[in-house]
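User: hey, got a sec? need Bifunctional polynucleotide phosphatase/kinase folded
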Amino acid sequence: MNKIRGYLLNAAKNKKIEITESLVNIPDDKNLKLSQANNKLILILKDSSDTTLNGYALIPKKEYKLSDGDLIKIDENITYSVFYEQGKRKSLDNPPDQANKKMKIASIFKTAKASPAIKTAAKQGDGVWKKLRPNVIAYIPENIKETSKVASFDLDGTLIKTKSGKRFPVDENDWVLLFPNITEKLKEISEDFKLVLFTNQRGLHNADDKVNAFKVKVTNILEKLGLTFLVFISTDSDKYRKPSPGMWDLLKNVTEADVEESFYVGDAAGRPGNKKLKINKDHSLADRLFAQNVGLKFYTPEEYFLDAPKSTYDPPKFDPSKVETGVYTIDLPKTPEMILMVGSPASGKSTFCKKVLIPAGYVYVNRDTLKTAQACLNAVKKALQEKKSVVVDNTNPSEEARKQFVLCAKNFKVPCRAFVMDVNTDMARHNNKFRQFTENTHQQVNDIIIYTYFKNFVQPEKKEGIDEIKKIEFKLDFENSDVGKYYRKFFLEK
Ligand SMILES: [Mg+2]
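Assistant: Yep! Here you go:
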């Protein structure tokens, strides 16, 4: 049998499972097996578990054909993406249980033929589904209540749970209202507030069939509640995905909304869980941090619907509000030297060079622009020959990466210093998202590159031939204070 050129990748752990044999066990879930047939990877689950494929629970013993870009989530910390080495990213398949049925629901945007889906949707208060951004879908009812008071809710785990009892839905019909009094509570609040749903649904990314099935699901839920909601659905990891505050800003484009008078309810609240009582810990802090980012009062579903006491929660690992503002003050010698910057992507190396070293006359050497290590080395030699100071703005994570440069400094008898950016994984990931959200031109660095950097990182030491190792604390220095305020929003989910 030919080997399929496909593999599974866990970005967070930088773990890759290559499919080298006809049958492979996935180590993190002994129930899972991968095989191959007709140039496709096939996933089979032996016994029931919480593992999902693109957000849908797997049915034991069933064969699932995997496509490029599919997500296999084993638990909160273990997600594998499917890659085919030759293949281009395709749209995701139908929900797994529908894969063989070829479910057909006409697009609600195309109104030519009235499929059952369209009829159901049309009953929902005669509103319209709109694509507000490439990755944000919204349902805007015709008559929005005239008030700036907003009662807003997450969907999964907040208003509904699965009917099947599985942790993740098996299809778009697999839901029931979370608590018996949900309808009554919402009816009550709708007297004075406009009702809004904010939901993250990355599984819908590039998957039109699933988007249509999800619209039907939402329509059915709202019909069951008998209430009018504005609905915002984020389908990607951009600035509209909670906890980032983007969906609230879109709401304000559509209708009046006052943060002070409004509130938000969600189950991703960072609650620690309780093993004795068999309560799982929350999968993230996305809802709590979304409310905090916007400035909304926040409740968990239990607090809001059941009047439960305020819950405790684990704070996020990285708090952007604690990052110091200021300017760098570094002593620089009058004689030539070499500085090796050391730091992950998005750790602020280039900004530091631009603010401190380039104005001081340092020749700037960077692999992104020069392309190869050899070209960098040539540029460094040229600068030192001309008796100029030089800075190498590469990630320089290991002794191996730094060696040639250190040697070069020795040959020219100039001191060599390493400036190590004091930025951890979460801060780098936050900075990376901040750039992605604020700079149109900035090429997004995949998180895996950041994780790989930290995995390979070896603290520089004097025994490598480096004369001084200096820690550089990351400092925020924004001329535009709105940008500074935005940096202090939470972008990571836990
Ligand atoms: Mg939820």
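Quick note: The CA atoms of residues 12 and 24 lie 21 Å apart. Let me know if you need anything else on Bifunctional polynucleotide phosphatase/kinase.
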